[in-house]
Write a structure and sequence with these properties.
Distance between the termini: 43 Å
Helix content: over 70%
Radius of gyration: 20 Å
Shape: elongated
Structural class: mainly alpha
């Protein structure tokens, strides 16, 4: 029994689909923090975070989401992965601290999706790098002939 091969094209489709969904999640989260949405703001204050931090975090999420969606910002995207991962870890710890287990579950789900997206990002980058190396070697071989 053989397993179907997942092509680079399919990996890119899955990556960009998940990337858009993750970005939408962080855009919504950032917007709710900046606007002091009553559904989330009181709970965040109860977690012990100062108001200026919540607003700054919301702005950072909006900027990070924008960077996340721009294909030419590959190196910055890695920083956004790190920042979003730290945000999700702190969301888990904060939810656990105030015994909001629904927030803990949400943080774990987002963390898993974020790690899947990162794995796809690295895999696609390696594939593209490999393809470029092969093309470069082929060009050098034909140029020297």
């Amino acid at each position: 029994m053989s397993f179907p091969t997942i092509t680079l094209k399919h990996k890119k489709i899955v990556f960009w689909t998940i990337t858009v969904l993750i970005s939408a999640f962080f855009i919504l989260s950032g917007y709710m923090e900046i606007t002091k949405n009553p559904a989330t703001y009181p709970k965040t204050i109860r977690m012990g975070y100062p108001p200026y931090f919540i607003t700054t975090l919301g702005l950072a999420k909006l900027i990070g989401s924008a960077v996340f969606l721009v294909p030419m910002f590959r190196r910055l995207r890695e920083w956004v992965f790190a920042a979003f991962t730290i945000d999700v870890i702190f969301a888990f710890v904060s939810g656990y601290t105030i015994q909001s287990y629904a927030d803990c579950i949400k943080a774990v789900v987002v963390f898993i999706i974020l790690m899947l997206t990162y794995w796809l990002f690295i895999d696609i980058e390696k594939s593209i790098s490999h393809i470029r190396r092969i093309k470069s070697m082929a060009f050098n071989t034909t140029a020297n002939s």
